[in-house]
Amino acid sequence: MAITFEELFDAKFLESLGHLRLVAKRVPAGGRFAEQRSRDKGPGIEFKDFRPYSSGDDLRAVDWNIYRRLGRVFIRLFEELEDLPLYLLPDISNSAFLEDVPRVRSGLRAALALASISLSQHDSVGVFPFSDDLSVLERPRSGRGRLMSYARHMSELEPGGATNIAQAVKRLGGMQLRPGLCVIFSDFFDPAGIEAVTQALGKLRHRLLLVQLVKKSDRNPELSGDLQLRDCESGEVEDVSVTPHVLESYRAAYDRFEEGLTEFARRRNAGLLRLDTDQAVVPQLATLFESGYYSV
């Protein structure tokens, strides 16, 4: 089940995000003028430092008071304001489109919510859906007016193949994008295992926010008896006798998976939000924004 444009581009949903902001402590140099504090110093707004004059510097930046006192020429440096690149990676593997309430719906709504927040503060936003590989849906661009285009293109996404987060992350890393905030929307159920996932994520040079799409049944499936289970992505079939002991072993494995993702986020100083896909998105997303801000 896909998500419709009307579900994404919902006026009340988007209006409810107006009080939230993404704030970077410092953004990498080389971006556009916007609202985030940059590592660049130049003819900005807030005074930061002095440095000796060099040939070619703008004479308007010279501090003539220092010259009159010391006989030396210094220029004033100000803090530049630039944009924070936001890279959104929604999981569109086949499994994300299954279930009565598909996880892809919450993932895309959360992605569009963050896009709306960033575009409204003049940051640039790129969208890179992934399954067994990564594609470019929207190259990083800015402008509040682009939000409708982002919603339309997201609503047209079709189920992909199996989940391969390592391949998707490798492809993103090869694009040599300006360092920014990379947000991944996925259940992180990857056939390679959570260790392979976190190892791949650890190679990204971007700041990370992991939005884990969960359901209560992930840890506590309502299954019992002799069943034939089919992998929704590979199609492989397995006969299983679901006994209390089997369920206990499954929950122990699931807890190890959760602990692996949590420990990686702690180690990497990455954000981690477990988003219940059976509940409303905005109240859960808002928990990231202490006092209305999410600092990266």
The assigned CATH architecture of the largest domain is: 3-Layer(aba) Sandwich
Number of strands: 13
**How much of the residues is beta strand, in percent?**
25-35%
Distance between the termini: 34 Å
Helix vs. strand class: alpha/beta
- The CATH topology name of the largest domain reads Rossmann fold
Spatial order of the strands forming the largest sheet: 7-6-5-8-9-12
Total number of domains:
2
Percentage of residues in helical conformation? 25-40%
- Using only CA atoms, what is the Rg? 23 Å
What's the CATH H-level superfamily name of the largest domain?
A: von Willebrand factor, type A domain
The string of secondary-structure elements, in order, is HHEEEHEEHEEHHEHEEEHEHE
User: What is the mean pLDDT?
Assistant: 84
| CATH top level class name of the largest domain | Alpha Beta
Query: Which regions are unreliable across 5 or more consecutive residues at pLDDT < 50?
Result: 25-45
Question: How many helices does DSSP assign?
Answer: 9
Oligomerization category of the chains in this entry: single chain
Shape assignment: elongated
Largest sheet: 6 strands, mixed
